[in-house]
Specification:
Blueprint: H1 17-36, E1 40-41, E2 47-49, H2 50-53, H3 58-63, E3 67-69, H4 80-85, H5 87-94, E4 95-99, H6 104-113, E5 122-131, E6 143-152, H7 158-173, E7 179-185, H8 186-195, H9 202-209, H10 212-215, H11 217-226, H12 231-236, H13 238-242, H14 248-258, H15 263-281, E8 289-291, E9 305-311, E10 320-325, E11 339-345, H16 346-356, E12 369-373, H17 376-391, E13 396-398, H18 405-414, E14 419-423, H19 425-430, E15 433-437, E16 443-446, H20 448-454
Parallel strand pairs: 1-5, 7-8, 12-13, 12-14
Antiparallel strand pairs: 2-4, 3-4, 5-6, 6-11, 7-9, 9-10, 10-11, 14-15, 15-16
Helix pairs in contact: 1-7, 1-16, 7-15, 8-15, 9-11
The chain binds one RNA strand of 77 nucleotides through residues 7, 10, 58, 60-61, 63-64, 102, 130, 132, 134-141, 144-147, 207, 297-299, 316-321, 343-349, 372, 374, 404-414, 420, 422, 424-426, 434, 436, 438-439, 441, 443.
Length: 455
RNA sequence: GUGAUUGUAGCUCAGCUGGUUAGAGCGCUGGUUUGUGGCACCAGAGGUCGCCGGUUCGAACCCGGUCAUUCACCCCA
């Protein structure tokens, strides 16, 4: 058999020791924040029944689902004519499981299955990988982690306010100083569509308007009419286009007038205003937060608040997002469960911190001290020392072979181990070990007890 | 799914209009230093130039195909 070059599937990555140190730094920050706000951890399987997953993410989403081929003779159900009928017929016969696409749908499934045992409102967080058969590019992977926090069983706007606070805490703790949390309300979108006379087309409206910064108003107008908008409706939008992102109170005031004829739109505005007054009551500023009534976000199940976070002046897309849904569990037979949640994209946050050089403080030293020695006799002596260090909760290792001392030092240096204990015949005779500080290069002979104190 | 981009040493890349034994930096191994890492100096190992075919006296370079990569669009974290 010929030797083959190993490789990874497109869009997947290994995380070596230094990447893991940085990832854990991010993940710990997020997990600690979730716990601080009273969320409890949940994990669900990597694979779900395909029936749980399909139909929840739209047609495109279904395309992006990874399907798992049935075990054994997966073709046994397939008839010759099925193949000519197309994948739609064959797929259910060869695959009954798929990899999770996000954490929200598995969570909804869990809530429905455990509805009698859960304490509502239920606050859960979940940090796990998800998989999408997307075409990878910058900041987009086929396997990536989401860190979700959701509250289900209440429509209190305190949840929305607390989400904003958690975002600010996490980003602050990670050293990010230039980012924008966009917030909107789905009802406002509905209201805008209503006011311009294009009810129900808010999705199209937003995907077009979203490109305003990139392609300009004229091109957006073209796209809107391609998507079937009346010229009259489009012209009614121009006040919004000219509306600049000013103070939040000004934006709200502008839309109170614009949406005056839309009951649902005004309701959305009212909710948004309530979130900000709660924020104020919680003693939080509005820094980093802007109201963007054109923020849409893809998933069609949002019904209330919508969030999205972008770090400014970096080449990565949104790093966090979420919103409120009134009927997440409805498809699984449990109606009227309101919830609100959001997700941090760890992989993108990682890319952002890397791009901004904010990982400097994260080191990945493993052991605090390494035992080096000259010969077999010293090795036995060193084994006792390394165990004693570990008993004192000091992360320690011993070089596994009686190699040249130079080689042992190089190893310690490369692994960023800050201290080395050297054991030779002299040390064994006197009982005083040589402790070397690798950063300064200085070394001293001292008793083990003294070393334990020092480390 | 659409449109581009790039494939040369472990990594990042150079290689003039096709012309002998394909180079550099970093990394790696060894030595200067048989009880001392980083720094310096010296030496060395390491390449079917992505793969297949074509043009040519001659191809890393030109042409065709193929695979892989990265980026953008769509959509998304």
């Amino acid at each position: 058999m010929s030797i083959q070059k190993p490789g990874l599937p497109k869009g997947t990555r290994d995380f070596g020791p230094s990447e893991m140190a940085k990832r854990n730094y991010i993940l710990d920050t997020i997990r600690d924040t979730f716990k601080l706000f009273g969320f409890q951890q949940l994990e669900t399987p990597a694979m779900e029944n395909l029936s749980t997953l399909t139909g929840k993410y739209g047609d495109e989403g279904d395309q992006l689902l990874y399907k798992i081929l049935n075990s054994g003779d997966f073709l046994k159900e397939v008839l010759p004519q099925d193949v000519t009928e197309g994948t739609g017929i064959v797929l259910p016969k060869v695959a009954e499981k798929g990899l999770r696409y996000d954490l929200t749908v598995p969570f909804a499934r869990y809530v429905v299955m455990n509805r009698n045992d859960l304490v509502f409102p239920f606050k859960r967080f979940q940090v796990q990988p998800v998989w999408r058969a997307d075409r990878p590019q910058k900041g987009r992977y086929r396997e990536f982690y989401q860190c979700d926090a959701d509250v289900v069983g209440t429509d209190s706007l305190i949840c929305e306010a607390e989400i904003l606070i958690m975002i600010k805490r996490v980003f602050g703790a990670l050293g990010l100083k230039d980012y924008t949390v966009k917030i909107n309300n789905r009802k406002i979108l509905t209201g805008i569509a209503e006011v311009i006379g294009e009810s129900g087309k808010e999705q199209d409206l937003c995907t077009a308007i979203d490109k305003l910064d990139k392609i300009g108003w004229d091109k957006v107008k073209e796209e809107l009419s391609q998507r079937g908008f009346d010229n009259e409706s489009i012209s009614k939008l121009s006040p919004i286009v000219n509306q600049t992102h000013g103070a939040i109170s000004e934006t709200l005031e502008f839309y109170r007038i614009f949406l005056a004829t839309s009951e649902i739109g005004l309701k959305g505005l009212e909710e948004l205003a309530e979130v900000f007054s709660l924020l104020d009551a919680l003693g939080e500023s509005q820094e980093f937060i802007i109201v963007d009534p054109m923020l849409a976000r893809g998933l069609s199940y949002y019904t209330g608040a919508i969030f999205e976070v972008k770090v400014n002046n970096v080449s990565i897309g949104s790093v966090s997002g979420g919103g409120r849904y009134d009927n997440l569990t409805g498809v699984f037979g449990l109606p009227d469960v309101s919830g609100v949640g959001f997700s941090f994209g760890v992989d993108r946050i990682y890319d952002v911190l890397e791009e901004l050089g904010l990982f400097e403080s994260v080191t990945h030293s493993s052991s605090k001290v390494m035992v080096a020695y000259f010969g077999e006799e010293e090795k036995l002596y060193g084994l006792k020392i390394v165990q004693e260090l570990r008993n004192q909760k000091i992360p320690a290792e011993i070089y596994p072979e009686a190699a040249k001392i130079k080689k042992q030092f190089t190893y310690a240096d490369k692994k960023n181990i800050p201290f080395v204990i050297i054991i030779g015949s002299e040390e064994m005779k006197t009982g005083k070990l040589t402790l070397k500080n690798m950063a300064s290069g200085s070394q001293n002979a001292m008793e083990l007890e003294h070393i334990l104190d020092l480390l």
